[in-house]
């Protein structure tokens, strides 16, 4: 149920803006992420680890804090993915997703708590923006150059896959072999559907 809601939100908001970015906010986010797995994504945690005035950096409160942290994770993923050397786009997407999970692995408890904040009633629009931005960042990191309908189709498709994999990782992230196999099964299913669609359309055209 949660997975369906998250995927639906991501699919519904494929052109998100981005949170404010600054060195001061990034430094505070790094400190909070290290503590949020235990203390939660709260303004009290923010003040404890980043100073009594740190809340001024995130006027939107805990939701602002969480959205900004996911945006920072997106940027970290793109930076790490610069060294990928894989000619096929589908394999680059796979590699980028695994890189992202590897990058946030030390903060798995913080990720779980952060999603709890975004899944709180009333925060659905922020959840949509956050997931849509992450999916778009995965395609950007993979070097996708699609435009028009293909751009949207790819992001809607990947949103469903990414949400499923993220939830599986939260439950089984201590076993990356299982996570990788789960991701590969999701990608293979999409690939099979794509080949079937191509054959059907080719037959119709004939």
From TrEMBL:
<feature type="domain" description="COQ9 C-terminal">
    <location>
        <begin position="128"/>
        <end position="194"/>
    </location>
</feature>
<dbReference type="GO" id="GO:0008289">
    <property type="term" value="F:lipid binding"/>
</dbReference>
<dbReference type="InterPro" id="IPR012762">
    <property type="entry name" value="Ubiq_biosynth_COQ9"/>
</dbReference>
<dbReference type="GO" id="GO:0006744">
    <property type="term" value="P:ubiquinone biosynthetic process"/>
</dbReference>
<protein>
    <submittedName>
        <fullName>COQ9 family protein</fullName>
    </submittedName>
</protein>
<dbReference type="InterPro" id="IPR013718">
    <property type="entry name" value="COQ9_C"/>
</dbReference>
<dbReference type="Pfam" id="PF08511">
    <property type="entry name" value="COQ9"/>
</dbReference>
